[in-house]
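FAQ

Q: What does a record look like?
A: Structure on top, sequence underneath. For example:
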């Protein structure tokens, strides 16, 4: 992996408010870095088509290519040694109120989509903690959000339009393509270049957000599931020190305009007196409204405000999915490394994700708990830590997030995904020459 030059100290998270989203995105250029700045892409050629037809022409003339979304991956999953195809200009949004779906271009970000459909009375079921990621990129990597009854963002997909390796434009749908569709949604960018995504929508709703501080980890031994089920979406933030969860964020549905009552205690944790940032000591100005104040779903489900994007985030991220039924055991296993983890960590977030039937999803066929690490930009130290964490989580069959940094070997990944052979077969069928494969796909999917 090529890395950028010296990274400034400090997390991307507290710097989200540094720059508002520009009116029009800048044209992409070759050798851009990813969002966090820890990776510089290899491709010498980058294309920015304005239509599916242009995507088809580019795919036909390229021997190899990878799609490029919001550049929020922390590893080489979107990298290419030759060509990248930026999807930023594919920005259409078409709401079908009769079918209760919305079809979006592959460059559309959730932060752009949400207010459009909300104004028409609709919502999507889940959002990630950061709103500016693209729909197509998020579903390709099974990016998730939170909620014991909420599947990851890809579970809302009912159809995909994509350009295959031969340049043909095809559609795969939940209604007509069965197992092939289930293998293609979390595509890792290797099935084809997605040009449009159709999502299920539901009636819009309002939410509130409460935050509690200093929850003893002891409370999770018998109450983990109940705590995660205490809201529509719940996040637990810990620095692994003092045997505590630093903050509990509870996002709950409410009637329009109805504020939430704030009980002073929650399983021994105390209600926050003011808005907080997940990282202790950082300003909450860029965080979504708390203190029980009601607001639209898309202004509460993310942790950070929709109209702010990071300017130059300097951090690393890793994440592992374990069966939620063994979540407490996994937490205690990681906690044994607290002295090694502490110096290099900004914060860890624990979230619940409902099981799904998408072959390459980290939550495939099991209700999951995700353990997400936001690290300081210290690549050598973090890279040395990951095998230790992965060893602690190995007894729980931990699946790493496809777009984060991990060192889990391909042979282990093969054991973790029962449908991996089906996914391999789909790639061989749709892309027999490997046009959309790269080092990441060849190593992690075909390397075992």
């Amino acid at each position: 992996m090529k890395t950028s030059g010296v990274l400034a100290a400090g997390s991307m998270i507290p710097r989200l408010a540094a720059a508002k989203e520009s009116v029009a995105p800048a044209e992409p250029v070759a050798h851009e870095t990813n969002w966090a700045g820890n990776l510089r892409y290899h491709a010498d050629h980058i294309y920015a088509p304005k239509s599916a037809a242009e995507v088809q022409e580019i795919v036909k003339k390229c021997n190899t290519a990878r799609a490029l979304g919001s550049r929020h991956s922390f590893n080489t999953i979107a990298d290419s040694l030759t060509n990248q195809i930026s999807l930023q200009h594919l920005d259409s949004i078409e709401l079908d109120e009769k079918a209760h779906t919305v079809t979006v271009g592959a460059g559309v970000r959730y932060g752009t989509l949400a207010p459009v459909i909300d104004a028409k009375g609709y919502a999507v079921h889940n959002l990630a903690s950061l709103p500016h990621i693209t729909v197509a990129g998020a579903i390709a990597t099974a990016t998730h959000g939170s909620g014991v009854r909420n599947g990851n963002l890809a579970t809302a997909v009912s159809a995909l339009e994509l350009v295959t390796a031969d340049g043909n434009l095809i559609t795969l749908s939940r209604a007509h393509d069965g197992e092939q569709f289930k293998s293609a949604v979390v595509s890792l960018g290797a099935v084809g270049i997605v040009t449009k995504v159709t999502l299920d929508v539901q009636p819009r709703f309002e939410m509130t957000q409460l935050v509690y501080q200093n929850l003893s980890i002891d409370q999770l031994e018998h109450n983990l599931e109940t705590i995660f089920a205490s809201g529509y979406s719940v996040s637990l933030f810990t620095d692994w020190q003092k045997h505590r969860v630093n903050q509990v964020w509870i996002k709950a549905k409410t009637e329009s305009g109805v504020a939430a009552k704030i009980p002073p205690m929650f399983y021994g944790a105390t209600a926050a007196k003011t808005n907080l940032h997940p990282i202790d000591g950082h300003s909450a100005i860029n965080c979504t409204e708390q203190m029980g104040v009601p607001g639209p779903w898309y202004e509460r489900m993310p942790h950070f405000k929709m109209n702010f994007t990071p300017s130059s985030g300097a951090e690393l991220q890793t994440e592992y999915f374990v069966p939620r039924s063994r979540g407490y055991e996994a937490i205690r296993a990681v906690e044994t490394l607290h002295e090694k983890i502490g110096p290099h960590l900004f914060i860890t977030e624990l979230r619940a994700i409902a099981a799904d039937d998408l072959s390459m999803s980290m939550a495939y066929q099991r209700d999951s708990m995700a353990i997400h690490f936001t690290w300081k930009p210290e690549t050598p130290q973090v890279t040395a830590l990951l095998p230790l964490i992965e060893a602690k989580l190995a007894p729980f069959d931990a699946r790493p997030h496809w777009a984060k940094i991990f060192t889990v070997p391909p042979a282990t990944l093969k054991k973790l995904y029962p449908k991996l052979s089906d996914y391999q077969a789909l790639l061989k069928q749709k892309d027999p020459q490997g046009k959309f494969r790269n080092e990441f796909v060849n190593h992690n999917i075909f390397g075992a």
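Q: Is there anything notable about this one?
A: The radius of gyration is 21 Å.
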